[in-house]
Automatic annotation (TrEMBL):
Keywords: Cell membrane, Membrane, Transmembrane, Transmembrane helix. It comes from Pantoea leporis. Pfam families: Virul_fac_BrkB (PF03631). PANTHER family: INNER MEMBRANE PROTEIN YHJD (PTHR30213:SF1). It comes from the Bacteria. The lineage of its organism: Bacteria, Pseudomonadati, Pseudomonadota, Gammaproteobacteria, Enterobacterales. The chain crosses the membrane at residues 67-93, 132-151, 183-205, 225-247, 259-279, 291-318. It is a multi-pass membrane protein. It is found in: Cell membrane. This is Inner membrane protein YhjD. InterPro entries: IM_pro_YhjD, Virul_fac_BrkB.
Length: 335
């Protein structure tokens, strides 16, 4: 049985209404049929049909649940990272007594309760004395949680990318091999993240330096152009990051055309998420409750939308159909 072409699908959509309801009123029935035919024709458009296939796969393969799990592990991984950060601050303060004394004096002077001030002073001193232990523990926990986070992200992306929902024998890996693969993937992701952030920072700084050196900062029409350039650089950085995710994490390499287009979709979507978060977080932090929990809620929302976007685009790539693309290699079925 051959696949139907978009023209055949559209012709069938026009011939058969999507909703076949008879009310007995010719005017109402005619309106329902027209709306049904239009809806069927609209769904037969290749881009819309592709979106519907991706959305169906995303929902059928628990994309929202995987996104929530990735969000949980992402937020949990921040704790050891904070431990390492505090340890780094402890090493800096321990090597600079003047800075340490100034910090302690500010703590004591800013708190009216002598008991609380003494407690905080002792806490700072204890944290500095135990900086090596805290840093080493945080580093080990960060490595462990990071590997598990990468494993969850890999399994979630593979769930959307596999031709079948169930795992095959080829998808099973030995314990040590799985952790080694996740460790290498984590290091690769960190390297890709460093490259993208460096690209964005260097390009932004170079752009500002060139404009200032040429004395063009007062030209009004140049500002929108510079904004577009900065936005393009940011999207390019996002593109490189998602390209690494969609190319490395799935077991089977996706079709190149679908990969490149899906990665572009993810890069633009990620930029939209960052823009929306930039607008909403200051408003969220302006309220008393937002000042206390705004940063936590903002981080959780950011991780969740990032995870959902990543998994939806993985489903979009996996459900792409192009005439000139080679089929993805099929997994070997167990006999």
């Amino acid at each position: 049985m051959t696949d139907k072409t978009p023209k055949q699908t559209a012709a069938e959509a026009e011939a058969k209404p999507l909703i076949d309801i008879k009310t007995g009123n010719k005017t109402v029935d005619g309106s329902i049929q027209n709306v049904s035919r239009f809806a069927a024709w609209f769904q037969a458009i290749p881009a819309v049909a592709h979106f519907m296939r991706a959305l169906e796969r995303f929902n059928d393969r628990l994309g929202s649940q995987f996104g929530a799990a990735i969000t949980y592990f992402s937020f949990l991984s921040l704790i050891p990272i904070l431990m390492v950060s505090f340890a780094a601050v402890g090493f800096v303060l321990a090597s600079n007594q003047d800075l340490l004394t100034e910090l302690i004096n500010k703590i004591v002077n800013s708190i009216s309760d002598p008991t609380l001030a003494t407690t905080l002073k002792n806490t700072v001193n204890t944290a500095i004395q135990q900086r090596a232990t805290v840093g080493l523990t945080g580093l080990l926990l960060a490595l462990y949680s990071g590997i598990n986070w990468m494993g969850n992200l890999r399994e979630a992306v593979r769930a959307q990318s596999r031709d079948v929902w169930e795992r095959t024998p080829d998808d099973q890996e030995k314990f040590w091999k799985k952790y080694a693969r996740d460790l290498i993937s984590l290091l690769g992701l960190m390297f890709a993240l460093v490259i993208t952030l460096s690209l964005t920072s260097i390009a932004g700084a170079a752009q500002a330096a060139i404009v200032n050196a040429l004395g063009l900062e007062d030209i009004e029409w140049l500002r929108p152009a510079m904004t577009v350039i900065a936005l393009s650089i940011s999207i390019l950085a996002n593109y490189l990051l998602f390209l690494w995710i969609f190319w490395i994490l799935p077991r089977h390499k996706p079709r190149k055309k679908a990969l490149f287009r899906g990665t572009l979709l993810a890069a633009i979507g990620f930029e939209v998420i960052k823009f929306v978060m930039t607008l909403t977080l200051p408003k969220l932090a302006s309220s008393p409750s937002g000042a206390a929990f705004g940063s936590v809620l903002g981080l959780m929302a950011f991780f969740y939308f990032f995870a959902r976007l990543t998994l939806f685009c993985a489903a979009w790539i996996a459900t792409a159909k192009y005439k000139d693309d080679k089929e993805m290699p099929q997994p070997h079925q167990a006999k």
